[in-house]
Amino acid sequence: MATSQNSSGPPDLDSSSPSDQSACSRSSNRSLRVAEIERRKNEAEDPFVLALKYFSDVEAGTPVTGNDDVERNLVAVERVAYSKGLPPEAISIMLEFAMSLRMGTSPCVRVLKCLIPATVVPQEAVVRAVVWLCVGKIPLSTQVLFIKWVLTMFDMIDAKDQLHSIYGFLFSFVTEENLCPYICHLLYLLTRKESVRLFRVRKLLDLQSKMGRQPFLMHLLSLYKVFCPELVTLSLPSRMKAGFRNHNSQWKSALIAVQKKNSFQVTSSVSLTVRLKDKTNPRKRKHNHLEVPALSSAVNTQTNPSSSRKLVPLVQLHSFSLLLENLHHIELPAQMGSLLGSSLALQYLDCVQDESAFLRLNFWLGHALHEEFLFCSSGVSQNSEEVLQFLDRLLSSQHFLQEGFSSTEAFLYKFLNIWDGSLLRPQILGMLSNIPVVPSSCIRQLLFEPLMQLFFTSTLFFKCGLIECLNSMLLKWLTWHSVYALEDGLDISLNSHTSINMTLSGFKDSLMELVHFVGRLASVGLQIEGCHSLLLSFILDFYETVCDMFLKYGLPLVVMPPAGVFYPALFATDPVSVDRLAHIMYRYKVNLMSAKTQEKQTEQAFHISRQTYREFNHYLVVMVNCLWNSKMFQPGMGVEMEEELLVSSKVPQYWSSFDFIHHPAFLSYAVDFHHKCWPGSRNVDFNSIKHPKPWGWYLEYLYAQGFEGLKQFVQSNISRRSTAGDGQGDGLSADQR
Amino acid sequence: MERHSSVAETPVNSVMVQRRSGSKSFRQSYRSCVGAASHLGYTPGLTTRRLTTSRRAPRSRTVTESVNPEQLSLLVKKEWQLSYVTPLHHFRHTQLRSYSRQLLAFIVAEKQQGLAVALEGAESSLKVVFSVVEGMATTDDDADTVLIQIHSKSVFASQDDPRRLVWSGWLTCINGSPDYVRSLPKDFVCLPLLCSSGAQWLTSLVKSWLERAFDCCIGSLDINSVNLQWLAALWTNCHPESNIGQLKLMWTLPVDPPLEIAFTVHPQDAWELWSSMRGQLQEEEQENEGVGEGAGDKDSVDIDEVTRFIDGLKNHFYRHFRLDLSAGTLSQVSTALGTAKHSGRIKISSSSYMNATLMLLTECALLKMPV
């Protein structure tokens, strides 16, 4: 079957080598003109184009053995053929080269084997090849190969009229014993009523008497009898096995691969792509649940006759403007699954909000996923390429709609229990991050338990991936909330008696469960991985989302990180983590402050618990004491140790070992600063930085290194005496509630 | 047969679960927080909870009385390959005549693919008939069973040769979970079980036509060992009323090369083992809760009884042959009432008890539903 996608390109030999392809896609943002120039340039140097030129110009009698040019060019053609298929012109050139035996018979077979068309086979090429066949120089085995090739590609030949007119020439080959079965098959495909002549019938009967009742002769005769029963008086068995044997095994797999590849190339474009379905025999269709059905209009549209409006099938709309014009009378396709490839159609679906349509799509999608991953015992690996493309397409659709399909949700809950955590990880995690809010009553069973098992038994990279996925899940839940809270009247300040407020609290419960869950994962994960800074970075990403839930998403919920996250971040050896923690603490403060004022103003109790304030203040005191006041390990702080133990560790001035100067993350900055401040001095005396003036400079120096979080933290929490009098500021402002 | 079609009606769900117009999944989640009983909102991961642990004992009734015996004879004594079907969109029991035409045209078109000529007479050699089998449904929610038959005549056969039945299949729903069926929107018809028999290529053609015409998905349905055990028990339970012949069980043991063990039990022995299990359990029940309903009920069979029954058989086998069957899987069960295979093939030999079997299979099919 011809695939229509390639018709977009110019008809010459474009898109030939992989490099050319990627270059084109990379330059898509640049102007078309530049891209065009680049394309032409690439084309001129393209080994494939050069190879075709070589084969069309090569002189007869050029030796093959020891000829590197032939080998090189042939390899170039083969590479393109097996990766994307040959464009029609290339088919013509190569077929002409092969059948003319310009370089003898040995390259001929090799060329025939790689003649995989990308779109169609030009009829003229086939006719010319038959002409060469009539010349009769070609070895018999090669002739058979050629006829087999024609049979395989028969459906891809762009027209059949000239082939019908050389019926007689083809018929003359039936006398060739080895060629006869294949020629009969070809004739069977080409026979029309007018081709049935008495002399042909006689010839066939003659052959039959010589060769016996061969099935291929019988089939051809039976077809003749169907057309002209008066000419074929022979009695044929009433039941015959239909069809000829398939001879396409040589090219079949390559052809299918090429067709698949070509049909998937267009899917991501934002247009109403009308995909032609690969023509596959239903008998062979066993394991392709993942095939997106073709977009076709419905047959059984028994719309109620009262609606006199004319419906336009989606399949007829090829442009966005057409879609807009017909927006109110569009008929949905027969199979909703076909919409998955087309973002515009999905958007239309989203805007009409047809529940049945969504359900149909979900049935199809869920069926495909279940069959492929859950019911299929043979495993997924065998067609992983296809699976990958399917899932990517699904993900891009979900991304486009900004929500997950409920069938993927249902599928994931089952699949997570059997997932090994590595199979198609990016895709599965991507789907997972799209699932809608899970009720808090079952979130543990459905989500947390399988994820926990996976988290603790997998590598660092899986842990990072999962935290990232949960972060994006949280972001999506919050975004949905901020959008639909307004739309559905789920105003946060509604009084507490309506059921709607109940659902808000349900939502908050789910969210809280999720945040606590990630807190637990993060605490243990950091311990297992030895506070790996990569993992820490993903965890801090998550808390950057959490700390802003109130201000950014209007959700009256503040959850502090657990100690297992806070302290590793505070004592991290890289300054970036400490800086980000400072930023997060700053945002917590801003959120809590504004929640407090709002609570006072409206008097309507949404309530952030005292416990949260207490936790926050505790962390704040720890941070300020530790970084600023050099009062580490004081009683009442989170980290307490016995005096004797600390003394016996022989760390001098242990109480200041985590201030801005001695903190392992900032020590190098302190040294550098000291060098810049006192270039002459050999001895590095950190205490000199602690004097008020250099301290101020030191802070400025740190801010200048890009530690914005520290700056925000210090400026909002520590009031330095403006007179810069007696040393570093020490007050905590306004947070003791 | 088509005379039925005007009478049969696609069941209209009288109790529609109230839905909000928007089907945003986000809002569904909100809904499920409040506990609205919509199947879209319900948490699909909990499907295991839907497994039935107790069933009614089969009784020989209904089907033989309510279904046209001619039609009934088409359904029994034939081996059917099972498939599950997601709910059919826009299926109308009143349109069967038109479906016959469409399916015929589809088959003819598919047959001619790859041929450059139109085979004349192909259309006239085939005949497709859709018909309603009335009286199969056990509840009001069940849609009527639809039977599809394809008759064919060879191209070279003479005019008056009768057409042979080359393919038949039926879509059914017997006592389908009312929660599920009712939660579907009005334009869906739930006929989750497809039994087909005939040439493979026709099966795939009919399936792909169904998929295209009603936007459904069809997948193969196998009968797992638990369900085979159920069938063994339910069939044995019928023995006093209708002789079950012999209870034949087939186990596959995972050894190399695979070992198949056929285990044939005399019907009377099987029945005695079964009734002793039931008696035993019922006594226990009564001790526990006095005269209770539930599993002690004469009409209902409990999963515990089934497991014990099969365990009893396995133990017996172990005593004699020192082979522990619990390492293998039950792959086939057959009695005079029917044969069921793990691969999803079933033959119902006696129409009297077919309802119970079909109820079980409908349930299996519904469990396969993706949403």
Automatic annotation (TrEMBL), chain A:
Start and end residues of each stretch annotated as Disordered: 1-30
Protein name in UniProt: Centromere protein I
Annotated InterPro entries: CENP-I
PANTHER family (UniProt xref): CENTROMERE PROTEIN I
Location of this chain's protein in the cell: Chromosome, Centromere; Nucleus
Pfam families, sorted: CENP-I (PF07778)
Gene Ontology cellular component terms for the protein in this record: inner kinetochore; nucleus
Family membership noted in the UniProt record: Belongs to the CENP-I/CTF3 family.
Lineage: superkingdom: Eukaryota
UniProt keyword list: Centromere, Chromosome, Nucleus
Major localisation: nucleus
GO annotation, biological process: CENP-A containing chromatin assembly; mitotic sister chromatid segregation
Residue ranges with Low complexity bias: 7-28
From TrEMBL, chain B:
Composition bias type Polar residues, residue spans: 7-16
Localization, UniProt: Chromosome, Centromere; Nucleus
Signal peptide as annotated in the record: none
GO CC term (a single one): nucleus
Keywords assigned by UniProt, alphabetized: Centromere, Chromosome, Nucleus
Region (Disordered): 1-20
Any one Pfam family match given in the protein's UniProt record, by short name: CENP-L
Principal place of residence: nucleus
PANTHER family the UniProt entry points to: CENTROMERE PROTEIN L
Family: Belongs to the CENP-L/IML3 family.
Protein name as annotated: Centromere protein L
Source species: Myripristis murdjan (pinecone soldierfish)
Lineage, uppermost ranks: Eukaryota, Metazoa, Chordata, Craniata, Vertebrata
